[in-house]
């Protein structure tokens, strides 16, 4: 039988609400980045109790993941465009390009 306290300690509950997660998931890159900066500044400024600090930390982590995900999507699109351009450049100005 698993001890509930052990399980809870191994996987701590998040302080983020579903609404906060949804909002972060919808943010454009620039807003996620700006809100991440604000979260870091709030932590650096101090004056937060432990629960508030942990909540700011979790917000910061979620914002950083959102921003990184958006950057990864852009990188994938750029890589695909470059690969397509390289493929078409191989045949540019050749008879096979005119067929």
Automatic annotation (TrEMBL):
<dbReference type="GO" id="GO:0006308">
    <property type="term" value="P:DNA catabolic process"/>
</dbReference>
<comment type="subunit">
    <text>Heterooligomer composed of large and small subunits.</text>
</comment>
<dbReference type="Pfam" id="PF02609">
    <property type="entry name" value="Exonuc_VII_S"/>
</dbReference>
<feature type="region of interest" description="Disordered">
    <location>
        <begin position="79"/>
        <end position="99"/>
    </location>
</feature>
<dbReference type="GO" id="GO:0005829">
    <property type="term" value="C:cytosol"/>
</dbReference>
<keyword id="KW-0963">Cytoplasm</keyword>
<feature type="region of interest" description="Disordered">
    <location>
        <begin position="1"/>
        <end position="23"/>
    </location>
</feature>
<comment type="function">
    <text>Bidirectionally degrades single-stranded DNA into large acid-insoluble oligonucleotides, which are then degraded further into small acid-soluble oligonucleotides.</text>
</comment>
<dbReference type="GO" id="GO:0008855">
    <property type="term" value="F:exodeoxyribonuclease VII activity"/>
</dbReference>
<feature type="compositionally biased region" description="Polar residues">
    <location>
        <begin position="84"/>
        <end position="99"/>
    </location>
</feature>
<keyword id="KW-0378">Hydrolase</keyword>
<keyword id="KW-0269">Exonuclease</keyword>
<keyword id="KW-0540">Nuclease</keyword>
<dbReference type="InterPro" id="IPR037004">
    <property type="entry name" value="Exonuc_VII_ssu_sf"/>
</dbReference>
<dbReference type="InterPro" id="IPR003761">
    <property type="entry name" value="Exonuc_VII_S"/>
</dbReference>
<comment type="similarity">
    <text>Belongs to the XseB family.</text>
</comment>
<protein>
    <recommendedName>
        <fullName>Exodeoxyribonuclease 7 small subunit</fullName>
        <ecNumber>3.1.11.6</ecNumber>
    </recommendedName>
</protein>
<dbReference type="GO" id="GO:0009318">
    <property type="term" value="C:exodeoxyribonuclease VII complex"/>
</dbReference>
């Amino acid at each position: 039988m698993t001890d509930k306290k052990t399980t809870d300690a191994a996987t701590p509950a998040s302080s983020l609400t579903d609404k906060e997660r949804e909002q972060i998931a919808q943010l454009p890159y620039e807003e996620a980045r700006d809100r991440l900066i604000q979260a870091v500044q709030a932590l650096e400024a101090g004056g937060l109790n432990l629960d508030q600090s942990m909540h700011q930390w979790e917000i910061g982590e979620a914002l950083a993941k959102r921003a990184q995900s958006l950057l990864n999507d852009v990188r994938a699109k750029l890589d695909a465009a470059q690969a397509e351009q390289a493929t078409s450049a191989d045949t540019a100005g050749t008879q096979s390009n005119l067929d």
